Amino acid sequence: MVEWLALAIVLIFLGIFLIVLAILLSARGKAEAGGVVIIGPLPIVFGTSQKVATSVIVLAILLTLLTMFLFLSLQK
Predict the structure, then answer these.
(1) pTM
(2) CB 43 within 8 A of CB 36
(3) Is the same domain home to 47 and 68?
(4) Contact 73/61 with Cβ under 8 angstroms?
(5) For residue 45, what pLDDT is reported?
(6) In this structure, is the dihedral angle defined by the CA atoms of residues 36, 56, 28 and 22, taken in order, positive or negative?
(7) Which helix (H) or strand (E) holds 20?
(8) 24 is in which domain, residue-wise?
(9) Same domain, 25 and 46
(10) What is the full DSSP assignment across 29-76?
């Protein structure tokens, strides 16, 4: 259980770091943005460019797989 808590804390700090990094990059005017909203099995992807949208899709797939892995590993 302690390992899961440590993983959660690391992920929280990683998220905060990414938010700060995005704010700093957007201040320079070089930032691009994108996102995915998943409603049931249907993903809605948006981004400022095709490159960002593709990156967001790959990230969404990886996060979905990580979520499934963590969910299934906690079922033991």
Answers:
(1) 0.56
(2) yes
(3) yes
(4) no
(5) 86
(6) positive
(7) helix 2-28
(8) 1-31
(9) no
(10) T----EEEEEETTEEEEEESSHHHHHHHHHHHHHHHHHHHHHHHHTT-
